[in-house]
Amino acid sequence: MTAATATTVEPVADPGLAVRVRWGISDTLAITRRNLLVWMRVPAYIVFTVVQPVIFVLMFRYVFGGAIHVNVPGGGGYVEFLLPGIIAQTAAFACFGTAIALAQELTKGVIDRLRSMPMARSAVLTGRLLADTGRMLVTVLIVIAVGVAVSFRFHNGAGNAVLMVVLATVFGLAMALIAAFTGLAIGDEEAVQAFGLIWLFPLTFLSSAFVPIQSMPGWLQAFANNQPVTFVVNTMRALALGGPIEADLWKSIAWLAGIFVVFVPLAVRAYKRAS
Known about the structure:
Layout: H1 17-41, H2 43-64, H3 78-93, H4 95-107, H5 110-115, H6 123-149, H7 158-186, H8 189-205, H9 218-224, H10 228-241, H11 246-273
Helix pairs in contact: 1-6, 2-3, 2-6, 3-6, 3-7, 3-10, 4-7, 4-8, 6-7, 7-8, 7-10, 7-11, 10-11
């Protein structure tokens, strides 16, 4: 008879903060890659995110451009007034993809399966937002290229043009945070899409994106002059074409910071409750 020998199990050391951050970044990039591959392999996603904004540029340029007369710095026509608005609309509408994708993955149990894997719990949400931000940036650059093809020109230098794209990207990310919260909180694809139309269309069209606010009825001007899309569009227009920047820029920053402060914790809370 042999005596059993006791085995001592050494406790596993808790990984430090730097290791956990590195793991979180690696997992986020893996989820980002997964989401981008889905986008590139599904033609409907590409049509919705790329073709639709291009159609808006061409439609507004050639259908409404001859009827709408505006004064812009440098003496440009309606297309130069229009394109910053189209870019802001493109960045905002990209959040439809965020909300719908999260609602679909929640309904199909994909989020539960991902969260059950040995990976950072935050990677599902941050990977989605990072992928959608990259997708939105590509779409914005395509819209700018189409705008240049139909006579849009930057008049305020390359540096300010880059800042305009950065502002559009941050604005789109802020809208994506709102969409992430609604997608996870509502959890139904059709309901999420209908809700997005209710708040996003008025916010973009009742602004300075497509027509001067002075052409609107007085009761609409009060709203249009004091909402985030107008401040962002006015700042982008000034960065691209010239004109006063500071006042609208600070108002844009204040609005975007407020959206991040409110909707980051709301989106995280909705993600933790999603099941």
